[in-house]
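Protein data:
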Amino acid sequence: MNSGGIGNKKRVIAVILSALVPGLGQFLLKDIKRAVAIFLLFASALVTVFWYNHTLWYSIPGLIWLWNIWDTYVMPRGAPIWAVVVLWLAMAYGIGWQATEIDPISLVQNWSRAETILQPMLKPNFIDKKQESQVAYVAVQLPCESAPPVAENTIAGIKITATPGCLNINDTVTIEAEGLWPNEPVYFEWRDPITAIMIQETHQSDAEGKFKYTFRVPSKVQGGTSNPNLPEYHRITLVQRKDIGGYEISVTGRYVLQGIYETLVMALLSTTIGALMAIPFAFLAARNLMRGNPVTLAIYYFMRAILNIARSIEALILAIIFVVIVGLGPFPGMIAMTIHTMAALGKLYSEVIEGIDPGPIEAIRATGANFLQIVRYGVIPQIIPPIVSLTVYRWDINVRTSTIIGFVGGGGIGFFLYQWINLRDFNAVSTSFIAIAIIVVTMDLVSAKIRERLV
């Protein structure tokens, strides 16, 4: 018998068992926790390496296997456990690094592409200089069928003509206008029948406020028609803008304000409705209230299952489902956040109820009070402050969540942000980032103060 009190025969058997199944020898020597830990470390390492299927990484489960044999041999003192943990972490981080294809060098190689994104983002456009604008347009027919030879229109003193007014692809057309502001930029646009801008150029009016531009009709202007073979009217538009002094909220700024308002309202409504729905679930999912008899205990397990299932589905996934059901907009996003909020707060509320002082409950129950009386006099007075604090915190979370939900059509600032990213309007993206950051920081400070007073 050695100093550790383990016989040589038993030690040999334990080593053989560990060689066959890591942790089995430790189990034989009655160190159950160590045996389970070693088996899980080896099994998870082997499964991960097998999934990644890279020969080099098979050395990690091999080393864990050898360490496990050595650990059994030197029991009951055992080998240092930190060594096998370090091996496992080296495998996890190493394979994780490779599986996620982390490549810092690509950041340097693609820096020029990053500059095209970052430079506009340094110029957010929440406000613009105040401008006065005037717009004139004329409709031309394409392809030509029976329109007059000259198309003309007069709007707010600006006369604009297109010669000819009936066009085919590759025809030459002359646009003339008078009554414009002299010596000011003229933004020339060709809009197809679906209102997409097919041509957008900048020109200049002359000293008399006149404008003349001749160009050949490109084939791309037919891309926005319902049927390229049928004659339809396209709109040629001239726009002038000039500064009149002062500043105003830009078009982007107005969209940002609209998106932020929708985000806050979505978060507020979903939090309020979700919290109200969570309250009955919380009481029915609190073990200390429902363990009185088999029926109430069964209700407890049922409610817990419902909350866990609903909470396991992310609000983003729910939003995608409800967007398909009810269409784009804030409403499907609010429904998704309400369901997830109900499940999350239901679980948190039930844990608050389970953590209250059992003394008042037992005293009230001993008097023969029913369930509602126990809740009214023994539970509610103890849970109001933490429940209000958790609800405020959830509102803070929902403000951030609603931003992401907008990316799948759930409304709010995220919806506009997604459109601006697709349009590569990074000035607007930067503006929305700043607005989101301000709202999140403000909400965090406000909710922290409220929770500080309540708890």
User: Anything to note?
Assistant: The beta strands are 127-142, 151-155, 158-163, 172-178, 185-191, 197-204, 211-216, 232-249. The chain has a mean pLDDT of 86. Residues 129-248 form a domain with the Immunoglobulin-like fold (CATH 2.60.40).
